[in-house]
Amino acid sequence: MPLVLPAIVVGVVCALILPGVSVLAERLQDVLWETLPDTLGVGRFSSVWMVVMLTATGLAVGLVLRAVPGHGGPDPATTGLVDAPMRPGIVPGLLLVTALALAGGVSLGPENPITAANIALAFWLGRRFAPGAPGELWVALAAAGTVGALFGTPVAAALILSEVLASQPGPGAFWDRLFAPLAAGTAGALTMSLIAEPSFDLSLPAYTGPHWGDLLSALLIASAGALLGLLAVYAFPVAHRVFTALRHPVLALTAGGLALGLLGALGGHLTLFKGLDEVKVIAGDPDGWSAGEFAGMAAVKMAALVIAASCGFRGGRIFPAVFAGVSLGLCAHALVDAVPLSLAVSCAVLGVLLAVTRQGWVSLFTAAVLVSDASVLPLLCAATLPAWLLVTGRAQMQLDGDGKALR
């Protein structure tokens, strides 16, 4: 009972920081991608403007990281969604470069840096006002509040933390340890729902199954998504070594921005940014592109994710991975239109997320939320099995201090 009130406070504050950074990024994005090109008389998403803007974003982020205290925290290639608390003095600079990257079109989401910032603040304030409470409590509360706000539901927070808590010894029953984080996640989700109404539903046609004929499709598409994700995972340390060889973070980020601009020119403007708004565009018009074009979008987005996450940009990998998975699912449906659209998209997202995040629950949850149809769950659960066999025990999209991939 004594944990309920601090859990609610942490959840509400976490939910307020997220839209604050998002609104700042959106306002700056309007200036960079609408006002400025219109003033200069160039196309908003012309190839030249994409290359110039992404390169300038890399340079700007690099210069800010060089100037701010703590330089934005540790190398983002070595961090995950929930990590140990950083010093609170690092948080302002981290949030600033996150907003710059989101606005500039970098293919990363806000989840990792926002979670890190909230954990740092909750840990610092918690240790000051409740020094007797264990430090890991504040980490769990901040992580749950942030994830609940990101997905608009505490279920996502509970699922992610269930994997974390299951690997940690501790007194009490599992649900006793999950109680306070679930309260924080609920507070974060409700706060975000009241001020922003987040939604991941792609409004795809309802799935009319399950049917036995769809089982093979689900297994193959999820496995294909896992293989696409693994290609990115194994390219990740190679790309990191290339950018590290440049020896200067400003140079590495500028080069990374240039590479992202060239990829944007190749894949089109829908492959830019974190991908949440863009994925609704392509899902809303599944006949607007060919199977080859959808496959190209998926490949470009995964390449952009690898470059952005390895050259030094601060950001998360879930949202761009979702875009790549949806593109792959739309490609599968375009190749074989007998495969139901909702099933193809959800299974492809499931496979890609399993490889990129290595978190089974959040991958399954995200895939199901995108189609908002419980009838796909039996096939999604079946599709998880071969996809997990492909990814488990293999390299992860996270490096250790020596630049080697974790397993």
Automatic annotation (TrEMBL):
Gene3D superfamilies according to UniProt: Clc chloride channel (1.10.3080.10)
Ranges that cross the membrane: 49-68, 89-108, 137-166, 178-196, 216-238, 250-272, 292-311, 318-335, 341-357, 364-389
Origin superkingdom: Bacteria
Keyword line: Membrane, Transmembrane, Transmembrane helix
Signal peptide positions (record): none
Pfam families: Voltage_CLC
NCBIfam families reported for this sequence: PRK03655.1 (NF002971)
Name the record gives this protein: Ion channel protein
